[in-house]
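Subject: Protein record for review, amino acid sequence with backbone structure tokens
Why sent: The fold of this protein is of interest and is recorded here as tokens.
Notation: Tokens come from a learned vocabulary of local backbone shapes, not from coordinates.
Attached in line: The record itself begins immediately under this heading.
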Amino acid sequence: MDPLIGSQKTENVAHSYGFTWWMKAVYLLAAGLTVCAALFLAARSTGANPEEKIWHWIEAAALALSGIYFAAAAFCSCVFFDNYSVNVRGVFVTSSLPRHTIHWFSYAKNQWMNCTILYPDAPETKKLIIVHCFSFDEDWHRWIASLKQLPS
């Protein structure tokens, strides 16, 4: 019996699915562009009066922090999947559901991307939304296929 589909608990099979190469490239490009914009604002403030200089440095710091966030998100964001739970991890937030409670799934489209929505025991309770920007393998797709699909 496959430990990812059945209830066999002989070994813990854990998978971590990171961003696809194109999503990682988008985040790293955004990180580079925001850091370049921060450097531009900092360099632009050299001849400005003190009040403008302060605002340029504040804007540059905010952009630099945004760039650091984008770079961290490119490498930290993942879907962690094992025998016991499904976790969606971001830089600051982790959402999870115990695997034994997940019985349904559906596909949806938000503003920019397609999503898989995992529903626990009752569809009215907390759900887990996974954006289709992670590189899933055959084990993930086999497990999703073992769930009941709700109409979209």
About this structure: The beta strands are 15-18, 78-81, 85-89, 94-98, 104-109, 114-119, 128-131, 148-149. The chain has three helices and eight strands. The two ends are 30 Å apart (CA to CA). The longest strand covers residues 104-109.
